[in-house]
Specification:
By secondary structure, the protein is an all-alpha fold. It has two domains: about 350 residues, Up-down Bundle (Sodium/glucose cotransporter); about 100 residues, no CATH class. The longest helix is centred in the middle third of the chain and has 50 residues. The two termini are about 35 Å apart. It holds the Pfam family SSF. Its main location: membrane. It is a multi-pass membrane protein. It is found in: Membrane. Belongs to the sodium:solute symporter (SSF) (TC 2.A.21) family.
């Protein structure tokens, strides 16, 4: 294992080095939180694919393939569909808004006062998303070093917190690009063909497994529908995803770069399911489907290649964890703390007037604080699936309707948005307590409650002020002036 250890250590050291480099580049709020809004198509596509394909997509995707066969691809497939829908229908408009958070978008659309409650819900989602990724470190480090779970979480979490705190989005962008390359080589180009060959090829796999393993709908129609509801719609509104859209240098980059990333996700989904199916042939009696990835890597891959594939799994976890962490810190600082301190009604209206140095320093502090909170929560929580379900139930049940409603329906009002967030969020929490965290009912009925509250209250209250809607349309069309501090921090070179 010495060679494998060396590969992992070099990889981790490289992540920290990129954090140090990013620290020297991130000198303004725009640079620190959204990489100066200057990413070109190649870097944008790679980093977007990296953040959405995390530990759940890699380890969990292979586990679903082990349990259900090719239909186990549906979870990751619906993530790809969501990213495609976001990129084709909404990303160009989102990029033109020039904001930092989803709650700032709600303030612009509804005329302020919508951001605090929505910020709390979004903060809870991003926190739990970061926690689920951090828990996954334990699985990987256990395979690598037979390490204690708590120590593994602290070690992996500390590395992510370190490079995220140092360089913000620039560090995360650079590390995500490396992680995208490592994942592509490790999972798609190495593990996939080796697993199929070791299992005897597709003909042998079909002979040794039940026919339902090769049924595209074998996982069940209700499960697929739930995946679409949670993951496809979740991709449309998550702060972690929107913050990456904000990094695009143009709306064209956001649209077509995201389309490429979404297509990549579809291929990654199928690869994970095939690897899991091959693992079922090779190891039919594993204690847990989630052990399939680690087992096939540890037992079937040669020295060196094994280290690279484990680095790929680590890359998948780190990319999602770092993206969720900076999203969580951005929401906590800009949407919650700033408002509680009374700095302003809407951060979008005054954030650019603050001193850039102080803004960067403040956001670094929040990343560090949120990072410590994520590590402590990950140590206390043992179930990745439950934590991820809580995150997406809150996101979809509480925020899907007011966000998409604001983008497509001009009659929606601030009171309708607030009622929608409260009704949907409370319904989700109560129903999770009643039916159980993993039940489908909380997100189904929570979404219906959110939609009903939005429509009824919006129709019952005065329409949004015409001046607010006019300013909103100007921002959506990209005709609003660039924030002065972003123009001032714009360097001559543009990354491609």
């Amino acid at each position: 294992m010495a060679v494998d250890y060396l590969v992992i250590v070099v990889y981790l050291a490289g992540m920290l080095a990129m954090g140090w480099w990013g620290m020297r580049r991130a000198r303004s709020k725009s640079e620190f939180l959204v990489a100066g809004r200057r990413l070109g198509p190649a870097m944008y596509s790679g980093t977007m694919a990296a953040i959405v394909l995390g530990g759940a997509s890699t380890i969990g995707g292979v586990g679903l393939g082990y349990q259900y066969g090719l239909s186990g691809a549906w979870m990751v497939f619906t993530i790809g569909l969501g990213l495609l829908a976001l990129s084709v229908f909404f990303s160009a408009r989102i990029a033109r808004l020039k904001v930092y958070t989803v709650s700032e978008m709600l303030d612009l659309r509804y005329g302020g006062r919508a951001g605090v409650i929505s910020g709390v819900v979004m903060w809870a989602y991003t926190l739990m998303l970061a926690v689920t990724s951090t828990i996954a470190y334990a699985t990987i480090f256990d395979v690598l070093f037979d390490m204690n779970r708590t120590l593994a979480i602290v070690l992996g979490g500390s590395i992510v917190v370190a490079y995220s705190t140092l360089g913000g989005m620039w560090s995360i962008t650079l590390t995500d690009m490396v992680q995208f390359v490592v994942k592509t080589i490790g999972v798609l180009l190495l593990l996939l063909p080796i697993a199929v060959v070791k299992a005897g090829g597709f003909s042998e796999m079909k002979d040794r497994l039940p026919t339902e393993y090769f049924d595209p709908l074998g996982i069940g129609g209700e499960t697929i529908f739930t995946y679409v509801l949670i993951y496809t719609f979740g991709m449309l509104i998550g702060q972690d995803i929107w913050q990456r859209v904000f990094t695009a240098r143009s709306d064209t980059t956001a649209k077509w770069g995201g389309t490429v990333a979404g297509t990549y996700c579809l291929a990654y989904a199928l690869a994970g399911a095939v690897i899991g199916t091959a693992a079922k042939v090779l190891y039919p009696k594993l204690g847990s489907p989630d052990d399939a990835f680690a087992t096939i890597v540890k037992e079937e891959l040669p020295v060196g290649v094994r280290g690279l594939v484990l680095a790929a799994a680590l890359a998948a976890v780190m990319s999602t964890s770092s993206g969720a962490l900076i999203a969580c810190a951005t929401v906590a600082n800009n949407d919650i703390w700033s408002r509680l301190r009374g700095i302003g009604k809407a951060p979008a209206e005054n954030a650019e007037n603050a001193d850039d140095h102080d803004e960067v320093k403040g956001n670094r502090v929040f990343i560090l604080i949120m990072g410590l909170a994520v590590i402590c929560t990950a140590i206390a929580i043992d179930n990745v699936v439950e934590a991820l379900t809580v995150a997406y139930n809150l996101l979809v049940g509480g925020l899907l309707v007011p966000i998409l409603g604001g983008l497509v329906w001009k009659r929606g009002t601030v009171h309708g948005a607030l009622a929608s967030v409260v009704a949907g969020g409370l319904a989700v929490v109560v129903l999770m307590a009643t039916y159980g965290i993993l039940a489908n009912e909380p997100v189904y009925y929570g979404l219906l409650a959110s939609l009903a509250a939005y429509l009824v209250v919006s129709f019952a209250t005065p329409a949004t002020d015409a001046a607010v809607l006019a300013a909103w349309r100007e921002r959506l069309a990209g005709r609003a002036p660039e924030p002065e501090s972003e123009l001032a921090s714009e360097p001559a070179a543009t990354p491609r």
